[in-house]
Amino acid sequence: MRVQKRFFLLILLFLVILSACQGPGGEVTNSDTDDKKTLTLWHISTGGAKDTIENAVARFEENNPNVKVEVVQQENDPYKTKLSVAMGGGTPPDVFHSWGGGWLQNFVDADQVKEITRDVEADKFLETGISTTTFEEKIYGVPLGMSVVPVWYNKDIFEKYDLEEPKTYDELISIIETLKSKDIVPFGLANQTKWPGAMYLMYLAERIGGPDLFDEAYNRERGFDDKAYIEAGQKVQDLVNIGAFPNGMNGMDYDSGQSRQLMYTDKAAMMVQVSNFLNNVRDEYPEFEDKLGFFLFPKIEGGKGETNHLVGGVSPAFSVSKKSGNQDLAVELMKELTSEETANEYVDHAGGISAVKGVKYEDELVGEISKVLEESNFMQTFYDQSLPPELATVHLDTTQALFGLSITPEEAAEKVEAKAQELLE
């Protein structure tokens, strides 16, 4: 009888324990596993910027011990396609890297991005930054960094051949001719992915047509076949014809570092490239920084653009997918990625320019670049980020064709304008 009683008590105890482990509806739960949430973050940062993002994620996870963030770092150009596929397929990351502008707006118009106007403090960010993620007075992303495009150059090469930073475009042409005579590639350019060459066209067009050129073409007050664009295209081809770029540039890949290697090995003297180039240098070949200087793209005589007018944009900015299953947590992660602590690390250790206000620059070279941005009277945002994707593709394709001498400046301008009429009017 005693044995039966003990057996009965053991069965009863087992049922009590089982009941305690069950949630509503009788399902077995485990607080250590089922309460753990996962967020995904996609970004393209490298070097110190990559470390900065990972440190921000670590702080977020420490403050949210029930959350695990899966961080996926992508290469720049494949990322754009992968994100578009993920968005269209309904499997996007919770938080994703953006450049703002027309590229982000494409996803906003497709109702794939969470509006965060009431979730963030817009005054915390530089107006030139937050404006690129704001559409119809609603905010869909927040910026961490700004990117500007100077002309980087090798100070040792300039000193060796008694060259000085040019103030005019004619002086720049003279430098190119001197460098060619010394068997040095004037501009390192790897244009397989098209956007590196587009920065030359953007600068030439702005210096010729002035700061209103792009906006007036976009708003249909003038065309993308304006004579300023045709003249800019002609100057691109003039540069190609005088040997300003390496042979085979349209087949060279920037992401793999082909143009940067020309700079590192003193085979090329200059490069028109985003400010993140400094981050590449520090990550890949830090010894080269002692040789590195920069100047602003010079004014063209008779043109309407000024030397302190910049080409640039936002990168990175972060947005939240509308299909995120944990939108509130994703917003908190986005805030940490653009916090003042993250921004300070971004400028101190990643060579970045902050889009977050109140950051102090201890890095002398980054501070100089930031000062250039502060003193600029105008910044032209990257065309491929400002234009609708279909039009951006035509812009990039025709610009690459200009460098390849397979299209005339008139034909390139006509193709861009025809697509603009189709999409913008």
Number of domains: 2
Distance between the termini: 92 Å
CATH-assigned fold name of the largest domain: D-Maltodextrin-Binding Protein, domain 2
Q: What is the 3D form?
A: globular
Mean pLDDT: 90
Low-confidence stretches: 1-5, 7-33
Task: Give me the Rg, rounded.
Answer: 26 Å
Strand content: 5-15%
Q: What's the CATH class of the largest domain, please? A: Alpha Beta
Residues in helix, %: 40-55%
The CATH architecture of the largest domain would be 3-Layer(aba) Sandwich
In order across it, which strands form the biggest sheet? 2-1-3-13-6
**What would you give as the CATH superfamily of the largest domain?**
Periplasmic binding protein-like II
Describe the sheet with the most strands. Answer: 5 strands, mixed
Total helices: the number is 18
Provide the structure class: alpha/beta
Tally of extended strands?
Answer: 15
Q: What's the quick description here?
A:
The protein is of the alpha/beta class.
Molecular structure report:
This protein has 425 residues and is of the alpha/beta class. The protein has two domains: 37-144 and 316-355, 3-Layer(aba) Sandwich (D-Maltodextrin-Binding Protein, domain 2), CATH 3.40.190; 148-312 and 382-424, Periplasmic binding protein-like II (D-Maltodextrin-Binding Protein, domain 2). It contains 18 helices and 15 strands. The strands form four sheets. Strands 2-1-3-13-6 form a five-stranded mixed β-sheet. The radius of gyration is 26 Å and the shape is globular.
